[in-house]
Specification:
Layout: E1 6-9, H1 15-26, E2 30-35, H2 38-50, E3 55-59, H3 65-78, E4 82-87, H4 102-130, E5 133-138, H5 150-170, E6 175-182, H6 188-197, H7 201-209, H8 220-230, E7 242-245
Helix pairs in contact: 1-8, 3-4, 4-5
């Protein structure tokens, strides 16, 4: 396309989101690096700029309707109207059901689902006007159910339902929506999970990898490459899909 494509990546200060931002920048997109703490975004944005790309760091609470609108307006003003949105922002508040507090439930549902809804709603008009758009939502294998994650599993399953509905509503305008459901990915978040369980990350990883057919853990780049495809013009006939990036089949 002759016009510049601009991507918004939420939760992009570290881990999967940061790698997705770098990958999209290397694909030639201008990238808005969004996270709740603007300062945390600057390192990723600086890396992109240093490699010859174009980026901005934007601090935004994705659960805040006004803040999301202002963030998208800032992206439009500084980089151009967004044609790619990657809803990656997420948190975990793991607990068994009988211990889980309402706050733990609400926080997880709000960041994952409310955040994805607000950002998707805020960008869809720009995509429709352009006649081209790509929305990629981050789900998880936990959408299939996972002990101690009633909130996270429900949120990630909801992301898949949101994705399919966006695909149905926006497809005729040239906008696709797809979801990626990672399995075990080696990030700060999974390291924090091991710490919370009181085991070393190496032991935690070994136990998980034992059940992965490709016999290794995933890396943020594995997810970023999948996002790169969904965000491309070549993926225009793929919409409403959930791709499990998990090293093997899922049920």
């Amino acid at each position: 396309m002759a016009q510049t494509n601009t991507a918004i990546v939420s939760g992009a200060a570290r881990g999967i989101g940061a790698e997705v931002a770098r990958q999209l920048a290397s694909d030639g997109l201008a990238v808005a690096v969004l996270d709740i703490d603007a300062d945390a975004c600057h390192q990723v944005a600086s890396e992109i700029d240093g490699a010859g790309g174009a980026s901005i760091a934007v601090g935004v609470d994705v659960t805040d309707e006004k803040a999301v609108t202002e963030a998208v307006d800032q992206v439009v003003g500084e980089l151009g109207a967004p044609t790619v949105l990657v809803n990656n922002a997420g948190i975990i508040r793991d607990n068994l059901l009988f211990r889980m507090t309402l706050e733990e439930w609400d926080q997880v549902m709000s960041v994952h689902l409310r955040g994805a809804f607000l950002l998707s709603r805020a960008v869809q008009g720009h995509m429709i006007n352009r006649g081209f758009g790509r929305i990629v939502n981050l789900s998880s294998t936990s959408a299939l159910g996972n002990r101690g994650q009633a909130n996270y599993s429900a949120a990630k399953a909801g992301v898949q339902g949101l994705t399919k509905t966006l695909a149905l509503e926006l497809g005729k305008f040239g906008v696709t929506a797809n979801a990626i459901a990672p399995g075990f990915i080696e990030t700060d978040m999974t390291r924090e999970t091991a710490q919370r369980l009181g085991v070393s990350f190496d032991d935690f990883k070994a136990a998980v990898v034992a059940d992965i057919p490709v016999a290794r853990g995933g890396h943020p780049a594995d997810v970023a490459h999948a996002v790169s495809f969904f965000a491309s013009e070549a993926a225009g006939f793929v919409s409403g899909q959930v791709l499990y990036v998990a090293g093997g089949p899922t049920s």
